TrEMBL record:
Organism, scientific name: Enterococcus alishanensis
Official protein name in the record: Phage portal protein
InterPro entries in the cross-refs: Phage/GTA_portal, Portal_HK97
Superkingdom, taxonomy of origin: Bacteria
Source taxonomy: Bacteria, Bacillati, Bacillota, Bacilli, Lactobacillales
Region annotation Disordered: where it falls in the sequence: 385-411
């Protein structure tokens, strides 16, 4: 945090409001939301579209369940400030819950916001997620710096971008707000809803129908009696029906054909997967294009999760850590390795190769498998030869010719 940011942190909201361009106009009309509980199109779509709910919940749950750690030059750190950030970012939530809320907001509204509260020294004190429908990025007129206008209970507050965690979907040039994926999918959702409504009406309208055939010997009076008898049988949904001589009753087949509905659902599912940039198999599509679970997870991590977690990491590194901490080498990072470990056979080969090639110690493999480190030789790097400590004198290694002679150390 620089001097300017510290000054901002110590000033009152009145000063902040006076520092920001007045009467700033946007396309959004916030006046109608003052003092009201807003229920937007994102929530209504999320609750009525199973495919979108599935993708959003998968992304939010995955991001919030990833290990989020503080490092110093690759060494994990856990101090009092990290304990506060992880378990007491505010009085009601833990950090993983905040990640979950922000990711849901990002994948519905297109933007996820969380306000950083600081103490008098400018250090992190609280982190509170905001409803994105009440937040609007604005630019200050003279300095061209980014601020966030927040409406709450009819009052308007402005916060500098250094105090606001903002993660988003892609935005157009010159626009600070991310594009809502649900807004992009509006036409697809409307079409899918129309097809479902039509199909439901078709299913509800289908009733059993019959054909009554008469011989020429049946007179009109007898025909009417047969019809009345059949109507009574049909309305009472069963009973005894006497089939008169010369009368034949055939059922008229009217089956509901779901082919069109299935094709439409497949198209909608592919569009949702494309917009959220996830493999379509996550929406129960065909999985034949992936030869293994590792290949699928590699694609998911590289193409979907990495760009998402990078946003969170950059925002936290820039706005939670102090400048002198970043200079010393401190940084926050999500651990994605747990998603890439594969099955037991793949993990065994990974650890085996890492240990034998000398870039992983046995204790690191144990910790990745949630087992306690052993210390001692298990904390050292080894190299195959077969398997000696890397700092061992080569003259002490056994020769490869099968004899018990040691290798003669060269001068």
């Amino acid at each position: 945090m620089n001097r300017f940011q510290k000054i901002i942190n110590r000033m009152t909201p009145r000063f902040i409001r006076q520092s920001v361009i007045k009467n700033y106009q946007t396309n959004s009309n916030f006046k109608q939301w003052f003092g009201k509980t807003f229920f937007g199109i994102e929530n209504s779509t999320l609750e009525t579209n199973e495919n979108i709910f599935s993708v959003v919940s998968r992304l939010a749950n995955t991001v919030s369940s990833l290990p989020f750690k503080k490092y110093l030059s690759y060494e994990q750190q856990f101090d009092e400030s990290m304990d506060k950030l992880m378990y007491w970012p505010n009085n009601n939530q833990t950090l993983d819950q905040i990640f979950n809320v922000m990711e849901v907001s990002r994948n519905t509204n297109g933007n996820g916001y969380a306000l950083i509260f600081r103490d008098i020294r400018g250090l992190f004190e609280q982190l509170v997620p905001f409803n994105p429908n009440y937040v609007e990025p604005v630019l200050e007129e003279t300095t061209n710096e980014l601020w966030y206008r927040v409406n709450n209970n009819g009052k308007t507050y402005f916060f500098h971008n250094s105090d606001m965690i903002h993660v988003r979907h892609i935005a157009g040039n010159g626009n600070w707000k991310g594009i809502s994926p649900i807004a992009v999918l509006k036409n697809s959702n409307d079409f899918d809803k129309a097809v479902r409504t039509f199909s439901l009406k078709e299913m509800e309208s289908i009733r059993d129908s019959f054909i009554l055939k008469y011989d020429t010997s049946v007179d009109d009076g007898k025909k009417q009696a047969i019809i009345d008898n059949f109507k009574m049988f049909y309305e009472e949904n069963g009973g005894i029906l006497i089939q008169e001589p010369g009368v034949t009753i055939e059922e008229m087949k009217r089956n509901f054909v779901a082919t069109d509905m299935k094709i439409t659902e497949g198209i909608t599912r592919d569009r949702i997967a494309n917009v959220y940039n996830v493999p379509s198999i996550f929406l129960n599509s065909d999985s034949s294009s992936f030869s293994s679970n590792e290949q699928l997870m590699q694609l998911f991590v590289n193409m979907t999760l990495t760009p998402i977690v990078k946003q969170y990491e950059r925002e936290f590194n820039k706005k939670i850590l102090l400048k002198n901490e970043r200079v010393k080498g401190y940084y926050f990072k999500f651990n994605l390795m747990g998603l890439l470990r594969g099955d037991s056979d793949a993990r065994q080969k990974f650890y085996h190769g890492g240990i034998r090639d000398g870039w992983m110690v046995p204790d690191e493999a144990r910790m990745l498998e949630e087992m306690p480190p052993r210390g001692g030789k298990a904390s050292e790097l080894w190299i195959s030869g077969d398997m000696y400590p890397q700092d061992m004198d080569p003259s002490l290694r056994k020769s490869n010719n099968g004899s018990n002679r040691d290798v003669v150390k060269e001068d």
